[in-house]
């Protein structure tokens, strides 16, 4: 006897599966937090060869949870096996930055990982795979994977700015004496980096325009830098980069993509630019996005003032520079 009618299992690939983000991520995927209580999952976990023993330990712990939704666990160091028929991929495996580094300093160390994984997905993944890149620099790594998987729709490749989005919700809620669930229509534009632009011009707090509740000075001098520098602040405080909050944002990103945005609200996702808002086509740029039936669409028609335009262009310029720096990995 089952209360919930179960769906057909889906395959979820997680790379860097023995790392710190994955340790906060895998158990929630297996519990149903990402795709729902009626969606069985098969976990396909990728690691580098020296980390396979540690990965085995994680798989043992997953077994020990006896999650009803977890149908099977595959542990491998072969990307083609990890992406075989995969429906959802969370690309976490990459080196994190340490104190004093910018995320783009990781470009050289991590870029090769994403070209190899793009090629593997091109060969073996489901044609409808939904890919989220978490490993930094996330937007450009997503671009590299996408360009190395030419047989897949570029719209299947996304990068994570949901953590920046969630950080912004809480910063604004705390400032206005509200709570994060009352904040809607938040937007992160551009790169998951210190040039990202968290935009409050269309944001509502309990239905009221956020810009009317805060001072321009707090917005420009405190809110924006706090969100832009939050990753670095956590590295400084913890000695390690954010992990549980990053895993939580990855769950949120995938759940929203699969199950949709609430009526009257949107989210932020790094997605393939179609030229909306004048942003160069083909960059993986974070936009305000609505999701319906497993598909996403960029919110159109928002008014962009001079302040916003300057910041949107600065982060676009950085993404174009990152793209040009990895041109040798973009077929
Ligand atoms: P970690 O070092 O704890 O784990 C990374 C794991 O990836 C390691 O176990 C490593 O063995 C594995 N790995 C390395 N190369 C691999 C490959 N080719 N294939 C498969 N696995 C591979 O790091 P972490 O703290 O889990 O962070 C992972 C990445 O996520 C970092 O790049 C970090 O900067 C990034 N990050 C992004 C966001 C975001 O908001 N987009 C937030 C937090 C962290
Ligand atoms: C974050 O935003 O916390 C992550 O991207 C880690 C980092 O390097 O800042």
TrEMBL record:
Coiled-coil positions: none
Domain Lactate/malate dehydrogenase N-terminal: 10-157
Short name of any one Pfam family annotated for the protein: Ldh_1_N
Signal sequence coordinates: none
Domain Lactate/malate dehydrogenase C-terminal: residue ranges: 161-327
GO function terms (MF aspect): L-malate dehydrogenase (NAD+) activity
Oxidoreductase in keyword set: yes
Repeat in keyword set: no
Protein task: Catalyzes the reversible oxidation of malate to oxaloacetate.
Protein's name according to its UniProt entry: Malate dehydrogenase
UniProt source species: Sinobacterium caligoides
């Amino acid at each position: 006897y089952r209360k919930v009618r179960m769906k057909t299992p889906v395959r979820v690939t997680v790379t860097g599966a023995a790392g710190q983000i994955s340790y906060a991520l895998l158990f929630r995927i297996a519990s149903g937090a990402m795709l729902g209580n009626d969606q069985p999952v098969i976990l396909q976990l990728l690691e580098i060869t020296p980390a396979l023993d540690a990965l085995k330990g994680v798989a043992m712990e997953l077994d020990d949870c006896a999650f009803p939704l977890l149908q099977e666990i595959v542990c491998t160091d072969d990307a083609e096996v990890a992406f075989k028929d995969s429906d959802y991929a969370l690309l976490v495996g990459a080196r994190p930055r340490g104190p004093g580094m910018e995320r783009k300093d990781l470009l050289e160390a991590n870029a090769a990982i994403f070209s190899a994984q793009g090629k593997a997905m091109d060969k073996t993944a489901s044609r409808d795979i939904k890919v989220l890149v978490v490993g930094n620099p996330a937007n450009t790594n997503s671009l590299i994977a996408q360009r190395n998987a030419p047989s897949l729709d570029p719209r299947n490749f996304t990068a994570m700015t949901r953590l920046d989005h969630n950080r912004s919700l809480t910063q604004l809620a705390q400032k206005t004496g509200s709570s994060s669930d009352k904040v809607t229509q938040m937007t992160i534009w551009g790169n998951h980096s210190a040039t990202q632009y968290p935009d409050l011009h269309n944001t509502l707090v309990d239905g009221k325009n956020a810009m009317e509740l805060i001072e321009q000075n707090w917005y420009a001098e405190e809110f924006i830098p706090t969100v832009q520098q939050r990753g670095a602040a956590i590295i400084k405080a913890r000695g390690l980069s954010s992990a549980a909050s990053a895993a939580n944002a990855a769950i949120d990103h995938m759940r929203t993509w699969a199950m949709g945005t609430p009526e009257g609200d949107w989210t932020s996702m790094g997605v393939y630019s179609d030229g909306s808002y004048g942003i160069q086509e083909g960059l993986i740029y974070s936009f305000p996005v609505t999701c319906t039936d497993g598909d996403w669409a960029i919110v159109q028609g928002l008014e962009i003032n001079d302040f916003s335009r300057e910041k949107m262009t600065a982060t676009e310029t950085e993404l174009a520079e990152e793209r040009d720096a990895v041109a040798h990995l973009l077929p």
